Amino acid sequence: MSYSGIISIVDDDEFILVALDSLLRSHGYTVCTYSSAFAFLNSCGPEQSDFLISDIQMPGMCGVTMYETLAAMNIHIPTVFITGMPGSPPKFSANVRRPEGYFAKPFDTHALLMCIEKILKSCL
After folding, report:
1. Is residue 60 within 8 Å of residue 86, measured between CB atoms?
2. What is the CATH number of the domain that holds 11?
3. Among 52, 66, 75, 87, which is most exposed with the fewest C-beta within 10 angstroms?
4. How many domains does the chain have?
5. Distance CA 17, CA 11 (A)
6. Which neighbouring-strand residues pair with 89?
7. What is the pTM of this model?
8. How many CB atoms lie within 10 A of CB 109?
């Protein structure tokens, strides 16, 4: 698949960033990676991203707080969370749109790609 949209990945694990960057680029996606929620929020990423993949547990600011910060800025990016902590999805404020999905690490890359493709087709 080849889309003109940008997929941003936010994760403090360098291995995950490199692996997802390689996977998504090999499927024709344009990718930007960020090693922290702060790095993403302090970049042009929030305004340019068409899709967001974020870890939940990160030092400094977790993915949930970043997602709620984006919503408070009136930025709503289709988002999938990845996490090394399986269990119930995190709770969000009542005024925040629910993320499009959750994937526990290690996750099925085919399922992730199908999720991204489906969401981007409906948005772009």
Report:
1. no
2. 3.40.50.2300
3. 87
4. 1
5. 6
6. none
7. 0.91
8. 14
